[in-house]
Specification:
Elements (H helix, E strand, L loop, with lengths): L9 E4 L1 H9 L2 H16 L5 E4 L6 E6 L2 E8 L4 E9 L6
Parallel strand pairs: 1-5
Antiparallel strand pairs: 2-3, 3-4, 4-5
Length: about 90
């Protein structure tokens, strides 16, 4: 029986989102780690939309924050490109 671990996505954080998550308060850090864990199973769960004018780029809404990412299905990778508050978030 297959446990499905081989089909999980690997999360790759760019420097900016990694630093931003480190600076969040503990409550938000726990929430973000849970969301990233969920994305290893299915990166398209939650409030996801494609970014207009950028094929293959997605954003996920997490409260007042936004997460910008791309997915490489062949390599089973999710690249987290940006993370930050909605007002400062550049598309």
């Amino acid at each position: 029986m297959n446990s499905g671990k081989g089909s999980r996505f690997r999360i790759i954080l760019a420097k900016q989102p990694a630093r931003y998550i480190e600076r969040l308060n503990r409550k938000w850090q726990v929430r973000m780690l849970a969301i990233l864990e969920d994305m290893t199973v299915n990166p398209f769960t939650g409030d996801i939309e494609t970014i207009k004018g950028k094929p293959g780029y997605y954003r996920r809404r997490i409260g007042g924050y936004r997460l910008k990412f791309i997915v490489n299905n062949e390599r089973r990778e999710v690249h987290i490109l940006e993370f930050g508050p909605r007002g400062d978030f550049g598309y």
